Amino acid sequence: MSNIIPINAEGYPTTKEFLSKVVDILLDYVKAQNDRNSKVLEFHHPADLMRILDLEIPDNGLTLQQLLIDCSTTLKYQVKTGEFI
Question: Residue 18 CB: number of other CB atoms within 10 A?
Fold first, then answer.
């Protein structure tokens, strides 16, 4: 997978691969939401979460791999309510 999503027809395979991985991450999250044996919250003190989750908007773009990692990490620390609105 390249570092950017191409905006031309030749980039379709890269875009498809990236979006498929995003969907996989989201489906794993939905599955975890419905697992009654999983924790409702992976608790960490706010200061610790600030070190784990870099929520700053960077001056330069991130790699596609880093975006996938950030998606997974962010969802990992969400409250699992088991409900979707």
Answer: 19
How many CB atoms sit inside 10 A of residue 27's CB?
10
d(CA 68, CA 40) in angstroms, rounded, equals: 23
Look up residue 26 and give its amino acid.
L
Distance CA 50, CA 73 (A): 12
- What is the predicted pLDDT for the residue at 1? 66
pLDDT in tens, 20-56: 999 999 999 888 887 777 777 888 888 998 888 888 8
User: What long-range pairs does 12-21 form, CB within 8 A, spacing at least 24?
Assistant: 14/64, 18/64, 18/67, 18/68, 21/68
